[in-house]
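To illustrate the input format used throughout this study, we show a single complete record. The first block contains the structure-token representation of the backbone; no residue identities are included at this stage. The design step must infer an amino acid for every position from geometry alone.
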């Protein structure tokens, strides 16, 4: 098997499209109050602001064109879930669990994903600027053509992370090993690492990026005369 394919996350597993039942905000609130797991539901066009959906559990659920501004999903569980063209800006998902999740063309500016366990996650064509993943466990994650500028990825435990066309300007990787990660077609200018640059050991970059990272190490590259 191709080594790059091995890194790719598993896709969510869903029931047949005809089996999905349309859900609304009232249904979300009822399930929260009754601590009921939400299964095989489709949520489309919801707009929620400042709502508390913490500790909720979602399995085999699709969210399309939904807006969850500054809502709390802290300590929630998401398994086999699709977010398509959704906005989770300012949301709090601290301490949650995600497995086989796709964010497609979504916005999550300033969202909080700290202390999470994340397995098989795909972010594609998203804007997650200023999002915070500090102290999370990230396994089998792909970030495709997605913005994570000024993002927080401090003290993360990472395994099989695939980057392509990502923008990570001024992101923090302090105490997060980048060994084996390929950033050669992504933007990593201004990233934060430790003073001894130990996070950069084993990272894969192009020649231009290598020259920029060399400056962090105090290396002066002499140009040909």
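Output of the design step:
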């Amino acid at each position: 098997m191709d080594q790059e394919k091995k890194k790719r996350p598993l896709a969510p597993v869903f029931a047949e499209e005809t089996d999905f039942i349309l859900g609304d905000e009232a249904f979300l609130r009822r399930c929260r109050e009754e601590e009921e797991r939400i299964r095989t539901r489709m949520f489309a066009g919801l707009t929620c602001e400042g709502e508390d959906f913490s500790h909720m559990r979602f399995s085999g659920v699709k969210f399309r064109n939904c807006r969850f501004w500054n809502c709390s999903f802290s300590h929630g569980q998401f398994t086999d879930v699709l977010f398509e063209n959704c906005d989770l800006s300012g949301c709090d998902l601290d301490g949650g669990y995600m497995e086989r999740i796709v964010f497609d063309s979504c916005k999550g500016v300033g969202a909080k994903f700290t202390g999470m366990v994340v397995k098989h996650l795909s972010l594609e064509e998203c804007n997650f600027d200023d999002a915070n993943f500090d102290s999370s466990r990230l396994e089998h994650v792909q970030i495709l053509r997605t913005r994570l500028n000024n993002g927080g990825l401090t003290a993360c435990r990472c395994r099989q992370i695939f980057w392509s066309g990502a923008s990570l300007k001024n992101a923090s990787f302090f105490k997060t090993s980048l060994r084996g990660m390929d950033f050669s077609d992504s933007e990593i200018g201004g990233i934060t690492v430790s003073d001894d640059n130990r996070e950069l050991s084993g990272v894969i970059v192009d020649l231009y990026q290598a020259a920029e990272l060399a400056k962090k190490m105090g290396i002066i590259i002499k140009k040909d005369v």
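Structural context for interpreting the output: The chain has a mean pLDDT of 93. The first strand starts at residue 21 and ends at 23.
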